[in-house]
Amino acid sequence: MATIHSTIISGAGASTALLPLLSGKTRILLVTDQNVGALEATQAIHRLLAAEGRKVEVIDTVPAEPSHHDVAQIVSQLGASQPQMIVGIGGGSVLDVAKLLSVLLHTEAPALTAMLAGELPQRRISSLLIPATAGTGSEATPNAILAIPEQQTKVGIISPVLLPDYVALLPELTTSMPASIDALCHLLECFTSTVANPVSDNAALIGLHKLVRHIERSVDQPQDLTAKLEMLWASWYGGAAINHAGTHLVHALSYPLGGTWHLPHGVANAILLAPCMRVVRPYAVAKFAQVWDLIPDADRTLSEEEKSHALVAWLAALVKRLPLPDNLAALGVPRESIPALSAAAQNVKRLMNNAPCSVSREEIAAIYQTLFPEHA
After folding, report:
1. What is the pLDDT of residues 215-254, one digit of tens each?
2. Which helix (H) or strand (E) holds 191?
3. Which of 88, 83, 111, 113 is nearest to 99 (CA)?
């Protein structure tokens, strides 16, 4: 658990409030990807960063699921670059890479291989993170997730040093972004984690209250900046909940899908959400009932047991309505990969230990099995 000291700027058109943060900065590294970098809202921020003679170097080659090789290549590409501030604009992958670069480009940085082996960074360059999706909440976590292709999974580098100085929640950046269920996974998993506590529960409930009221409106009316901002805050609260608790089953099963089959993290989580929550439900009935009561028009006369079942059904229906994929075969994942996926997921001990129930390799395999067409 790390204390979040980030200054948060939020609101439509609030990008001009970034100017005071740039005082005294003459060299800035902007980290993004090609899709987000092409947005007019991103280009406007780029112009703001470059105003008053500031030199802005751009890295826009961050892949969707970055590996440690990708980060090492970016560091090598930057050479002796010495930015005074790192600005990350993008989804979780971009923000995670920006967090790592804020450490790796510091003169006292440990090597990436050392951090992957457990060495914790002590210093970093000033950083500003601007999420372009209402999903990962990376801007509020001390985590940076990298694929390790040699092990066919992902690992997290976790240190409070990775938390940024500044966060900007700008809804105009998210109007063209697809639906994401990632924040919902973070909020639900943290709320039902074995390490949940009053602080994480408070963050999770605030985030869930915002999300269940605005997720569908933000998709159906993508220019509704109020709904988009509420979703950005829901995502931030999901990250804060991770910071104080931790995810479990959905993310443990998601990591091998990203590490082996390169499924986008949000897509893998969306597919896994309802099946994993169905397994968790008997061990979190009261908390599931609390979440059900947050949903607009929910039948609050049901018993706790009935509410918990209703929530799982609502989650499955939500994924279909958005719409998001609900089977692995359509995404190119063969059924024959289930044993390897199950072994890799079971090995994500950091997350599996947070689950409110013990889940065997056979039970993990059964969850993956439901994600093929005849079970959809």
Report:
1. 999 999 999 999 999 999 999 999 999 999 999 999 999 9
2. helix 182-191
3. 88
